Amino acid sequence: MSSAIVFDDLHFAWPDGQPVFTGLDGAISTGRTGLVGRNGSGKSTLLRLVTGELTPDRGSVVTTGSVARLPQDLSWTADRTVSDLLEITGKRRALHAILDGSTDAEHFAVVGDDWDIEERAAAELAKVGLDLPDVLDRRLDTLSGGEVVLAAVAGLVLRRADISVLDEPTNNLDRRARHLLHDAVRGWRGVLLVVSHDRELLDLMDQTAELRDGRLRTYGGGYTSYADQVEAEQEAALQALTTAEAAVRRERKQLIEARTKLDRRARYGNKMYANKREPRAVMKMRKRTAQVSAGRLRNEMLEKVAEAEAAAARAEERVRDDDTIRVDLPDPGLPAGRTVLEATVAGRPLVVRGPERIGLTGDNGSGKTTLLRALLGRYDAAQVTVRHRTARVGYLPQRLVLDDGATVLETVRAGAPGATPHEVRARLARFLLRGDAVTQPVGTLSGGERFRVALAQLLLAEPPPQLLVLDEPTNNLDLASVEQLVSALRAYRGALVVVSHDEWFLGELGLTRRLHLGDDGLTDEDVRHSA
């Protein structure tokens, strides 16, 4: 498989001197490639270097042809249209001018060979579910956020770039929109490079490129295949490390035994010399010979120890020690079967008991977040009546509300006033918030760091919440951290209500109930749907 993107001795640092890449080498093959790595590993930065939005400090990024990118944060102004988003408005104006009788050479130059641009644009939009009247002239503010993302994806297909780059394209997309995007990716022509936390999307890739510790390594197959390969490698690496450490202990033991024997021989020789049982010259010669032999043996043994230690060090380098959040939820003391929430939603009774795990799904704009806020008494909704809510509630909203002026330590201690600063620091370290980061104002943190602060504030609260309500909790977590969160939530002994479009995440939680919010109100889904 030929290379579409080649990185050669790539160096890049931010203006404050913080390095991102120092000598990155590697290549992205033709076909579909998923780019994975921990938060902060530089995935989005690498994409921007590929598209030319950023320039390397040293080294090069070589691409085979034109590059188009769908950014992670797609922004637009209210007066822009779908045509503007697809970047075909100029061609359409020129085309209509020609159809109205213009013979201006500039109009013909703008149209080029794209005489069917409107038909092709409408066809691509229809493929992603936007088969709407006059869709090209629709203002973007009349579409949902998911529809705008899908329109932008259709624009990439229409642009026919040699290389297309997607940065977190499924963030906040509902189930239907995700499936439409997945269908578009399955039929993608040309080179596709995708950064995503969506495992279903990553499993559609032909290969997976991992960005780790400033290095790029490619594995065959999608994310599941990549994870299996890494797991097998780690099993072999751990076995090799165990063997190497055993060799170090063995060589050190043999060195001690050899030194003991040499010391005994030296004492015996000194005793013989003192008793003068042989001629002085013979005794001196034997002593020098013994010293040379002992020195040679000692050096040989030391070399063997050094070789064993070097082999152990090499084996240890192959063992991953990935920095992921480590969530360990305390027992909230909620008796099984106790009702923690009782309400009526659009005429339908809703009862939540401990330790139920309820997944809530629905299309974008269906009102899931509004429903959660109404159930928690934070919003007055006409069709939601709460009759009973006595449990201690922990709520993680989709849009974080934090005091930007407070430090990380102050923010988390507010929920656990009985904990000492030292105890809070120790707990924050499990959320990868260490050292000076703990005393930084929340407003100076990155999006991922702010999310970890909010998560820590919720999960470290004292006393612990008996009902956890989470609204899209995986959007800002890397894949390894999502696994840690899943593990903690599965062991959580309180009640859980979670909104998510991430089918893998919902499937791993061991849901006891699954509800869908749609045009028919709140309805039950088969919990096996996410298994």
Would you give an account of this structure?
The radius of gyration is 32 Å and the shape is globular. The relative contact order is 0.10. By secondary structure, the protein is of the alpha/beta class. The protein contains 16 helices and 18 strands. The chain folds into four domains: 3-221, Rossmann fold (3-Layer(aba) Sandwich); 230-318; 324-392 and 464-531, 3-Layer(aba) Sandwich (Rossmann fold), CATH 3.40.50.300; 400-462. It has a six-stranded mixed beta sheet with strand order 5-6-7-3-8-9, sandwiched between helices. A six-stranded mixed beta sheet has the order 14-15-16-12-17-18, sandwiched between helices. A three-stranded antiparallel beta sheet has the order 2-1-4, covered by helices on one side. Helix content is 41%, strand content 20%. α3 packs across α4 and α6 runs parallel beside α7 (175-186).
Q: Look at the structure and name the CATH superfamily of the largest domain.
A: P-loop containing nucleotide triphosphate hydrolases
The radius of gyration computed from the alpha-carbon positions, rounded to a whole number of angstroms, is 32 Å
Shape annotation: globular
Count of beta strands: 18
The stretches of 5 or more residues where confidence is low (pLDDT under 50) are: none
Mean pLDDT metric: 86
Q: Percent range for helical residues? A: 40-55%
How many structural domains? 4
Q: Sheet bearing the most strands, described?
A: 6 strands, mixed
Helices and strands: which structural class?
alpha/beta
Distance between the termini: 35 Å
Strand content: 15-25%
CATH topology group of the largest domain: Rossmann fold
Q: What is the number of helices? A: 16
The level 1 CATH classification of the largest domain is Alpha Beta
CATH architecture of the largest domain: 3-Layer(aba) Sandwich
Task: State the strand order across the main sheet.
Answer: 5-6-7-3-8-9
